[in-house]
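Listing S7. Sequence submitted for prediction.
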Amino acid sequence: MKRIAIITLVVLVTAAALFLVPTIWFKPWSIDHFYARVFLQYVLERPMLLSQLRILEQYGIESHNDDLDDFSVARTEREAQEVADNLATLRSYDQAALSPSQRLSRDVLEWFLDDLNRRRPFRFHDYPVNHVFGLQSGLADFMINVHQVRDEGDAEDFITRLSKLATALDQLAAGMRHRAALGIAPPRFVYDRVIADTGAFLKPKPEENEIFRGFSRSLDKLAELPDASKSSLRESCRAAVADVVYPAYRSLIAEVERQRAATGSEDGVWHLPDGAAYYAYRLRSHTTTELTPDAVHELGKREVERIQQELRKILEGQGIVSQNLNDTLQQLNSDPRFLYPGTDEGRKQALADYQHIVDDMSGHLAELFRVLPAAPVTVERMPAFKESSAPGAYYNPPPLDGSKPGIFYANLGKMGDVPKFGMRTLAYHEAVPGHHLQIAIAQELRDVAFFRRLVPFTAYSEGWALYAERLADEQGFFKDPFDRLGYLVSQAFRAVRLVVDTGIHAHAWTREQAIEYMVANTGMPRGDVVREIERYIVTPGQACAYKIGELKIVELRERARQALGDRFELRRFHQAVLGNGALPLALLEREVDAWIASAGGAPAAGGS
């Protein structure tokens, strides 16, 4: 019996080695195992992403929750090589042996890895320290809104993470120096914004800083934790903010100020080394198309003209004769009947109204979609330290363990920039049937490679959110003409983005030129426009994905209508679009065409 047990053990160890050795170090036997390896490699090197997703906590694994990501130059170099190696391995599998689901997973992963591999010559062309989505504010936002404090261990991990902020910010500063040596830096105003925002973040006493206050509120909810333990943890957090966080941010700002003195004023990436090639890459990456900057620019101008004609019809229907569309819209933006008071009470009412819009739409989703997400969505105010430079709103998806809802963060810094007639459109975009619906459904997919529940493609996700606005309009959710006006302003805003983004980065427009064009063609509040233009300057190409993605989804829907006739059902079309998670637009087109064929239609030849 002992001999049999030894033989059995040897067989099991050998079998495990035959499986694990190639899976971990070489080419896995199965492509599904390769998908798993690539995904695990990606997330295990990103403890902050793991904390956001909360994949491992349900198995009692929480060691990542006291660590921060590696933002070093060396890590960027290693990752570039890992991407190239993984892409080569993926392409070595025999496609003929794959099932349809495996083939789609393979094609999605190939597009994703190939895109990252194309980035390799431009891996330091980004601006990791910026005023919109810069890592310096992202780290603070992560501590406030992502790291959950649900017990004493979580609280201790929180403080340990705070102690590592100095290392992370030192890495960001080193990355800035590395980029500057390569001739890569943002325009001077970006550093001005970073200095101002970080100064506002550091202005309160440590015990009044938002990081400490958020941590303290979390401790208040831990009823079983003794008061003495709470007091000790609070003091440890206060000390970490005072002795680590504040000095680290001041050191980063000293580096920003040093570089600011040597930074130019050119706004577009055309001025960077190989700037034209970099922008072409960014445009392809975000739109998942081969459209050129000039083609996108002209598409934007055509869309602007079309949407402005609809805006004029709405105004005429309200008895408003507009000689100058911009002036008329600006007057409506400042009309007191469309504004909340700039007080705490006004902000509280705005949040309640946003939540009412979301809840009302949620009650109608089953009429439009076959599958609905289990995760709820709530509305919260954006952290105050981000409001002066951040866009009007953003969305954070729910963790995979269901411990938090999806959150639509609304910018309520300046209530004069929050006209009521734009609120429905923004809520539909960020929450339902926009980002929350799409992302939560993707996260809850089953029977697909795990990475497909999470992989991002900007044109798909932002295109869907813009399509969600259009869907709400088509389904009659803008009952008030002024609400529909807000929707059309949003549409014009996204069309103008195509013009100004390409204008800035391909045609050498200045920041001021872009601001004036957007104000003149949308009628948006100037404060909103300035924030938006400054966002496009530091995230080239991203703003073009919205309209291009939306137009592709609409094109596919109309193709399905024509092919299926009376057999077309909107709910089934939406399932065909949402049921595979985020996809590059060419793959989305392929999958929708396959659905049309399976439903008995004869789809037309695919477009670009």
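Caption to Listing S7: primary sequence and predicted structure tokens for the chain studied. The CA atoms of residues 274 and 517 lie 27 Å apart. The chain has a mean pLDDT of 93.
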